[in-house]
Structures are given as C-alpha cells and as structure tokens.
C-alpha cells in the first residue's frame, strides 16, 4: 500500500467531488436525525449539488493550497487550506476549509496525513494558528477525534435551526 499526499491538480476535481459526497453522507444523515424531517428538508432540500459546488469552488479558489491523497494511485482524499491575511498586529491565521477521505479508505491514517500536509502549508506561509470548523453531531465524530488528536482545541459553538 503506497500513500502519496501531493499538490492538487485540476484533473482531480471530479474524483474529489465524488468521494466528498460519499464521505459526507453520514453527516447529512446525522443532521436529518437531529433536525427532524421538516426542518432538514427546508435547510437541505438536496445537499449533493450544493456540496459538489462547494468542493469545486473551494478547490479551484485555493488550488495552490489544496492537497490530494492517493492510495496506490487512486485519489482517496483531499484537504483545502485557506490562508488568511495578517491582522492589525501581524498575526496570520489559516483555515482548514475542507477535508474528506473516501469511506472505503478511511481508518488508514489518510486524514492525519492530509492534516499534517495542511499544517505544513500554513506554517510555510507564516501562519501562527489554524482554524477548522466541524459539527457536533455523530456524523462528525471521526473528524472531531482527528482534529483533537492533531492538537486542535475545540471551542463549543451551537447552531440552532427553527422552521417558520
């Protein structure tokens, strides 16, 4: 088994969109359970096209700071880094904007390698700290475990929904 983490290429886009939809299926299933059918259908009537467009947009807008994981030559994951501008005192931050690993390739250290490669990009750019946002639902539990094992500190945030 050969794992390679490399720079994003435009030809990666379609495989990344496909694997991201498979990867995030449990998230939207968890959100459906948490929100109930009525609010879920109002907030996320068809999440796949919206999520596919978000992946395409993030990868294209941040092509030079996106990384791709290949396992035995097959694209199995990606991460998108967004570099911030220095603030008033010169501190620069970065966001781990998006990360996904194909469900068939999960639990093999690929997410960890993508986080490590992303942090290296941030450090090289002179960033002093990194942000990553994720959900508190069961679908995001593996992501939270990864981020915490990589030294990220959670800040509890609550996002409420209500049907009108």
**Side-by-side strand order of the widest sheet:** 1-2-3-4-5
Helix percent reads 40-55%
CATH first level:
Alpha Beta
- Write out the CATH superfamily name: Gcn5-related N-acetyltransferase (GNAT)
How would the global form be characterised? Answer: globular
Number of domains: 1
List the helices and strands and how they pair.
Blueprint: E1 3-7, H1 13-35, H2 37-43, H3 47-61, E2 66-71, E3 74-83, E4 93-101, H4 110-124, E5 129-131, H5 141-149
Parallel strand pairs: 4-5
Antiparallel strand pairs: 1-2, 2-3, 3-4
Helix pairs in contact: 1-2, 1-3
Tags for this model:
164 residues, Aminopeptidase, globular, alpha+beta, 5 helices
Describe it:
By secondary structure, the protein is of the alpha+beta class. The protein has a single domain (3-149), classed as Aminopeptidase (3-Layer(aba) Sandwich). Helix content is 42%, strand content 20%. The protein has helices spanning 13-35, 37-43, 47-61, 110-124, 141-149, and strands at residues 3-7, 66-71, 74-83, 93-101, 129-131. A five-stranded mixed sheet has the order 1-2-3-4-5, with helices on both faces. The longest helix has 23 residues, at 13-35. The relative contact order is 0.18. The model has no long low-confidence stretch (mean pLDDT 95). Residues 3-164 form the N-acetyltransferase domain. This is GNAT family N-acetyltransferase. InterPro entries: Acyl_CoA_acyltransferase, GNAT_dom, MshD_Acetyltransferase. It comes from Luteimicrobium album. It holds the Pfam family Acetyltransf_1.
């Amino acid at each position: 088994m050969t794992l390679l983490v490399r720079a994003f290429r435009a030809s990666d886009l379609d495989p990344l969109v496909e694997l991201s939809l498979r990867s995030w299926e449990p998230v939207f299933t968890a959100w459906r359970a948490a929100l109930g059918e009525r609010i879920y259908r109002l907030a996320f009537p068809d999440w796949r096209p919206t999520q596919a467009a978000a992946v395409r947009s993030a990868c294209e807008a941040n092509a030079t700071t996106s990384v791709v994981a290949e396992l035995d030559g097959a694209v199995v994951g990606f991460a998108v880094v967004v570099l911030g501008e220095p603030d008033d005192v010169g501190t620069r931050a970065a966001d781990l904007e998006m990360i996904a690993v194909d469900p068939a390739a999960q639990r093999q250290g690929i997410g960890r390698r993508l986080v490590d490669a992303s942090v290296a990009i941030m450090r090289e750019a002179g960033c002093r700290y990194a942000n990553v946002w994720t959900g508190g639902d069961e679908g995001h539990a593996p992501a939270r475990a990864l981020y915490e094992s990589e030294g990220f500190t959670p800040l509890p945030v609550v996002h409420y929904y209500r049907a009108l």
